[in-house]
Amino acid sequence: LTVMGDAGMELNVSPPDSTAQQDSLFSMTDVFLISLITGLFTYWFFFHKKKEEVPDLPKMQSVAAPVRDSSFIEKMKKTGRNIVVFYGSQTGTAEEFANRLSKDAHRYGLRGMAADPEEYDLSDLSRLSEIDKSLAVFCMATYGEGDPTDNAQDFYDWLQEADADLSGLRFAVFGLGNKTYEHFNAMGKYVDKRLEELGAQRVFELGLGDDDGNLEEDFITWREQFWPAVCEHFGVEATGEESSIRQYELVVHTDVNMNKVYTGEMGRLKSYENQKPPFDAKNPFLAQVTENRKLNKGGERHLMHLELDISNSKIRYESGDHVAVYPANDSSLVNQIGEILGVDLDTIMSLNNLDEESNKKHPFPCPTSYRTALMYYLDITNPPRTNVLYELAQYATDAGEQERLRKMASSAAEGKALYLSWVVEARRNILAILQDMPSLRPPIDHLCELLPRLQARYYSIASSSKVHPNAIHICAVTVEYETKTGRLNKGVATNWLKNKVPDENGSNSLVPMYVRKSQFRLPFKPSTPVIMIGPGTGIAPFIGFIQERAWLKQQGKEVGETVLYYGCRREREDYLYREELARFHQEGVLTQLNVAFSRDQAEKVYVQHLLKKNKENIWKLVNEGNAHIYVCGDARNMARDVQNTFYEIVAEFGNMSQPQAVDYVKKLMTKGRYSLDVWS
């Protein structure tokens, strides 16, 4: 800050003199004048000075504070783009679809870019009309019970509050959802409806993809009608056939400092060696597995209980939250891909984006080795999507195999049927495709560019932080099945977790993880009754709930009725947490323990049958006790059957018609008294 140059000089009003005579000349007038001057100076120094400094402060701040460029409009203008494809993605599929649409644009003389709404200021949508032939496309996935994905949360909040005039905006929406969920494609539907309400013009109808059916086919069907509509709207024509355009270029590093090479980290280099909170999706915590035990006593399946140590991580969680873990692929699959393609998997390389303006510099952390990419960063176990097959077709030297790949990637009915049967239903992963097509030997760098990212897996936490503040418990079942081709496919995460056995040095038992907050919460008042319905591994969050209710009771709190409906196949085989539940029941924490064993008798018995059996008690708890209902587990059958049972109970004891009973249950959901934590 500047200092006044002569601020102190005016005090010397007369030159100093040693004579007594001059000293005596000081009169009352002199004293007055000196006092006045001193007072004026003091005022000037303390007040005038500050007024002069103020204008300088903003200048200094503007120089010092870097401003993040969050305008996608400016970026589009700078790079000559006219189509922006935003994605709300939790598992990477919506992002993948957005990339495919943005690449499509060049076929029509247009230029597209995929964009993460979290990185930009979406209020700029009102300015998109500044760009000629501009269009905003939204690939929006719905997460959980009708929620936006993490990266679309800010966009969703803005849409709810916005009163912007979007009359110059042209848009289209493709939603990604699952029909087994109560709020099918809620996010896609909301974005489509809300943009229209704000005055935007819909160029093509809302697409609704269903992951319970064939999401890839839904997307292709929508896409093949979407582009002709865009062409008609803008008066443009396709410039030719779809061509293969590489998005990344390969750089092989022959002389590289290994300290600069990624070895599986999700974000910051060496973040697994030097852990720093806060921990999240881009900075997971390496938790040590302190316990890994088999829960079931028999049967073909392997059900397990794991305990992760989160001491010193500053990670906090609540009962009902989810833990996300980053798994690794099976090393034998990785080695087989390396062998079949004849490459050295330990080659250090980078894939660099050819579009220098893109925010996404690499498809995964680079530089790294092919082995690390295939182990930690790429999904090699799910059936590849049609765009991958299309891009790979050029590398098949056998004409028949090339034609087959192109056909499966086409939008023709015959091609779609072939893709469904040969890839999806046969559960052929990339290795199986390479094995079954001997002439298909793509360059490994292009394969790595095309494969989607390996995603974190979410598990309902099976513990209470009140009882286990330094640990997170997981309950899971290993996935393993034989495909139509006779191959044995294994679930990536569950088989990886199965092998995480606690050891003395701990190096083989580390799990990269973070916590994702959930709306699946116990009632605020401990005295409120709870009805928990969770067959199989759906028991997980309820172990945490019961632990917490037991802890509250120990604290002297009044705890309401705690009712559990649990189900498994056979009492002697897979009755999970049997001893713990019996103890809680004996102690009176668990006031009701209702267990359905589906295969211990001729007729199958499920949790909904026990609910019907106790329907009078259920209605009393809900209607008079204001009980909260929780359902966890399979969305496709169990959750739907349980909900239908509640409709029946409400209709019978509430003297309501079927539509009234449905409305009653829906209102319970709206009030947070009927909560779901389900998967398909």
Automatic annotation (TrEMBL):
What protein am I looking at?
Answer: NADPH--hemoprotein reductase
Task: List the InterPro entries hit by this protein, alphabetically.
Answer: CysJ-like_FAD-binding, FAD-bd_FR_type, Flavdoxin-like, Flavodoxin/NO_synth, Flavoprot_Pyr_Nucl_cyt_Rdtase, Flavoprotein-like_sf, FNR_nucleotide-bd, NADPH_Cyt_P450_Rdtase_alpha
Q: Where is the FAD-binding FR-type domain?
A: 282-523
The cofactors it requires, by name, are: FAD; FMN
Which gene name does the record give?
Por
**What organism is listed for this UniProt entry?**
Fregata magnificens (Magnificent frigatebird)
**Pfam families for this protein:** FAD_binding_1, Flavodoxin_1, NAD_binding_1
Give the UniProt keywords, A-Z. Endoplasmic reticulum, FAD, Flavoprotein, FMN, Membrane, NADP, Oxidoreductase, Transmembrane, Transmembrane helix
Q: Which GO terms describe its biological process?
A: response to hormone
Q: Which residues cross the membrane?
A: 25-46
Q: Which GO terms describe its molecular function?
A: flavin adenine dinucleotide binding; FMN binding; NADPH-hemoprotein reductase activity
Q: Which GO terms describe its cellular component?
A: cytosol
Q: Which CDD domains match?
A: CYPOR
- Output the PANTHER family linked to this UniProt entry: NADPH--CYTOCHROME P450 REDUCTASE (PTHR19384:SF17), NITRIC OXIDE SYNTHASE-RELATED (PTHR19384)
EC number assigned by the record: 1.6.2.4
Question: What domain of life?
Answer: Eukaryota
The beginning of the lineage is: Eukaryota, Metazoa, Chordata, Craniata, Vertebrata
Q: Where is the Flavodoxin-like domain?
A: 83-227
